[in-house]
Amino acid sequence: VVFKDVPAAAWYTPSVQYVYNHDIMIGVSADRFAPEVGFNRAMVVQTMYNRSSDKTFNKNAAPAFTDVTNKNLWFYDAVQWAAQRGVIAGYGDGTFRPDTILNRAQFCKMAVYAMDGSGELGRYSTVTIFPDVKPSHWASAYINMAEDRPVSAASVTVTNIYNARAEAVSR
Question: What is the SS3 assignment for 149?
Fold first, then answer.
């Protein structure tokens, strides 16, 4: 185990080791992964960017969001990449809000767009995989699709519980 805060016997240890070994995620410091810390929007987009086999985007484009304009930010390229690909849209006021922690439903929606699965959402909109996620829930199709494919930590109560880093890497 690379990180001091990831116990060898923890349920998420193999997943943390995998994402670290494959350059998908790094720790919050040289020896800490922070498995219980919420997965914020910047972390999610950076992880999706790291996982992508196609990292091309227009590096000369204007910043996509008013609060992500510094090209030296560790997540700047990932945000530009995701915005140009339609993976993220930001908020109505033109911001991205990189420090906002995602709940599991929001995480599933971003994951579906990142894997370019939005065209398949229709077939997941009437499915009930989890008893606490009714087809009428705004994110039911995203949650169901994310659970059907290996991209999410959706397999427990989904709607308003926040996604920790350990949960996000465990699928």
Answer: coil
- With a CB cutoff of 8 Å and minimum separation 6, the contacts of 6 are 12, 13, 16, 17, 33, 35
Q: Looking at residue 150, what is its pLDDT? A: 60
Cβ burial, residue 61 (10 Å; 0-12/13-18/19+): exposed
Say if residues 102 and 42 touch (Cβ distance below 8 Å). no
How far apart are alpha carbons 10 and 34 in whole angstroms? Answer: 13
DSSP sequence for 108-139:
HHHHHHHTT-GGGGGGGTT--SSTTS-TTSTT
pTM of this structure: 0.79
Q: What is the pLDDT of residue 157?
A: 36
pLDDT, tens digit, 9 for 90 and up, residues 47-89: 889 988 889 999 999 999 999 999 999 999 999 999 999 888 8
- The residues near 32 (Cβ < 8 Å, ≥ 6 apart) are 3, 4, 5
